[in-house]
Prior knowledge:
Elements: H1 18-36, E1 44-49, H2 62-73, E2 81-83, E3 88-95, E4 98-105, H3 112-122, E5 130-136, E6 144-148, H4 156-165, E7 171-176, H5 186-191, H6 196-221
Helix pairs in contact: 2-6, 3-4
Amino acid sequence: MTSGPGVPAVNGGSMRPHGLLLSGQRLNRAMSRCVLEPRPPGKRWMVAGLGNPGLPGTRHSVGMAVLGQLARRLGVAESWTRDRHCVADLALALLGDAQLVLLRPRRLMNANGRSVARAAELFGLTAEEVYLVHDELDKPLGKLALKLGGSARGHNGVRSCISCLNSNAMPRLRVGIGRPTHAEAVQAHVLGSFSPAEQELLPLLLDRAADLILDHIRERSQGPSLGP
């Protein structure tokens, strides 16, 4: 399995690079503080980018690309650390007074929910405090929509999260990837890489996605309501 951007590959039984070891130690200390220290209600959030860890450049893993952009915007792009408890890459960041847990599952899409639910448990988060970022077939590339809970709408990663969290209340940022004309082409389209023309649109799309989710978290951090 390949590592995501900014995450050095580590073979089983081999020694970790010194920088990764220090990063892991810092994350573990930060996690301990987050788990053990009291916090104001609603001031900690998790953002999970759904996808397949071995296919980071595909349409189905565009949620992970959004997480990479979020990490860059928040200044933690070099802080990703592989966490064995969650089976995920984690990075911790601050957004004003709020604490953000960024998560990229290292399980296949159909089992993403196991990583998300474990992290939510460790950080003491409710389903309403967990954002999911994922691809959306029924929206063209470049279209974004923030959905506040509801059904999985056929998305296996979202279905896994609903099952593992035992809730469908998670806010979701849906990133359009477009639906092919023929139904038999859907699987190849979803698991395929973005075309050169689509790749030209990605930087602006990822920026807009980061803006949308950060603005929503800022708004929610200032008050108790789950407003759009």
